[in-house]
Amino acid sequence: MSIRLLDLSDDRLTYRLRLDGGIALAEFGRRGAVPWTGEGGGPGPDFAVYAGKERIDGRSDRLQVVETRELPAAAGAKHTAVVLFEPASGLEIESHLVRYEGTALLEKWIVVRNRGGRTVRLERVDSLALTFVPGEWQLLSFSSDWGNEFEPAAEPVGERVILETRYGRSSKGKHPWATLVREDGELLNVSPMWSGNWIIRLEKGDKGELSLSAGLSDWSFGKELDSGDSFESVHVAVALGSGADLNSVSVDYARVGRNHWYPRNGLSRVLPAEWNHWWSYEDQDINERAFLANAESAADLGVEVCTLDAGWFGPSDGETQWYDYRGDWDLVNASRFPGGIRALSDAVHAKGMKFGLWCEIEAVGQRAKLAEEHPDFVARRDGASLGYLCFGNPQVREWAYHTLAQLIRDYRCDWIKLDFNLDPGAGCGCDDHGHGPGDGLYEHYRGYYAVLDRVRADFPEVLLENCASGGLRIDLGMARHTHTTFLSDPDWPEHSLQVFWGASTFLAPDACLHWSYSEWRGEHPNQRFRASDPSLTPERFDCYTRISMLHGFGISQKLPELPSWIAERLRLHIADYRQLVRRFVREADLYRLTGQPLHDGRGDRWSAFQYSLPAEDEHLLFVFRLAGAEPSRTLKLRELAADARYELTWSQEERAETHAGIELLFRGLPFAKMEEESSALIRIRRL
């Protein structure tokens, strides 16, 4: 049999498919580097579908290639689909690949369609299946839980490694992100683009070859495909890098995200400075008077958005808990907000700011009238409520859209913070919600994405924020349907740096939101910020505030009660953010110049981030010295011209220097006179 090759290579990637009696990835790697697949590993199977007891993959004997299609794609992307048919099962399988020009990143998924005359049950669908040549690999990943997102893990690849979540939220337990580091420093990153349960499998074969598969978790999953029905798998992103340097992967992720994945509107492009009431007031102390007083202070400080978080809705009797009534979003706590929510919105708008509102649209409280009036809206498993609404049900999707639309219209919302504070697990097991007993969670997220898209289409200037108990649903799937992602609930300095360092390995900085070090109403061992603390110095406050400028900027403080010197420092920092910093956060390539800071004094105690605008040869450098750091550090900068000279200007300091590019690249920029918990913000311009 002659071998037919489909060459999809470009200037950054080598990608060749064999189409002789099926589909297989014959060669895959960075241009000029040793391929990941090829001789010694055998051709990879491309995908795998488990239909009943049968496995169908790209190398299955009976698989037939029907056609190859070049499909429409946005400028800068190329979309190819190979259509195959397996006659015994009657399944048609489309293998889709999108390549993004100028990057070593691609997107992979399959569509399974039942062309036969009988129902077929899908029990596992691997969007991606690769086989690597024998070698040794280090596996990098991140574990995650509330208040401990992006905790790194590194391990040699053994006989079998499984990374997954079964909590029903993409980044509870593990983040949907894994990187293989080869002996020669080549990197291969995989990220399931999904907000529910996902899985990445690594398994060694008899000859030392390594098989990798990724996609939707098969735990408690099953999908009945009737004749004519189709199933679209979870999309998976794959990115290649070099030099054992995660920057070589994350720069491509950010560029593709900005150019192809992330929704954009006028407000998200501004990247506004936001105030949110939550940590200083929570749901106990917030009321109309407090919110309006903060709005007045926020306007004076230069804040651009004021967000009313949880605590605004529910019964007004003072005895019941609002979370028991989630779903009844028409209820407003009149004892706290006698003038209603629209009055707050109008007051914020009158001061030239935007108004934001929190909502947990997926959740349903145990006393909500919604659950009584529409018991079929509630996600259930084995007859018990799971505490959320099943968006696999088309009636729920209609209700959710109209509820959000009414909140936006009635309260003139510019920003909706969408939270989700529970674990769906395997998801809804009902068979009368528009899905079967085994695919409830899959259909929930497909339905939720559809509602988000509809809201964005009908309210194109409203910003949608993704939040889930802080950062427990951070993934590239949700990033395609919302404008910004909240990284974590806690925000003490080393934690904020830990989570941003991790998140920035696959999210652009402008797709992230986190707040500065907040003064908490409640108790947390590491949330010790107090504005009245006599030991708080301007240098420490500057450090805390600049950390929150690395991405979308937010604060959660009692603004009217800030000491005058703190208010003045905050005003200066907000001006810095608006006039200087956010242009780089929006547009620049980000390079992590140091290792990841970690909780409890672990990890790198110096933290530096360089934002680079290649076209202008202009850069912005953030440097932080944390508690326990060595006295000095020299930082080698990136992406400068060796033969040029650069002017370095320190923000809010009377300091400017001129350096040769070759000096900054190879000798580095020394930092030797910074106190612990201090910072530097340096603008670098080519002369």
Question: Could you give the topology of this structure?
Answer:
Blueprint: E1 5-7, E2 13-18, E3 24-30, E4 46-51, E5 54-57, E6 64-71, E7 77-86, E8 91-100, E9 105-114, E10 120-132, E11 137-144, E12 151-156, E13 160-164, E14 173-182, E15 187-192, E16 198-204, E17 210-216, E18 223-225, E19 230-232, E20 236-241, H1 247-261, H2 266-270, E21 274-276, H3 278-281, H4 288-301, E22 305-308, H5 341-350, E23 354-359, H6 369-373, E24 378-381, E25 384-389, H7 394-411, E26 415-418, H8 440-458, E27 463-466, E28 484-486, H9 493-503, E29 512-515, H10 538-547, E30 552-555, H11 564-587, E31 589-592, E32 606-613, E33 618-625, E34 633-635, E35 645-650, E36 656-660, H12 661-667, E37 669-671, E38 678-686
Enzyme class: hydrolase
GO biological process, one term: carbohydrate catabolic process
Organism: Cohnella zeiphila
Word description of this protein:
- With 687 residues, this protein is an alpha+beta fold.
- The longest helix is centred in the C-terminal third of the chain and has 24 residues, at 564-587.
- The chain is globular.
- This is Alpha-galactosidase.
- It holds the Pfam family Melibiase.
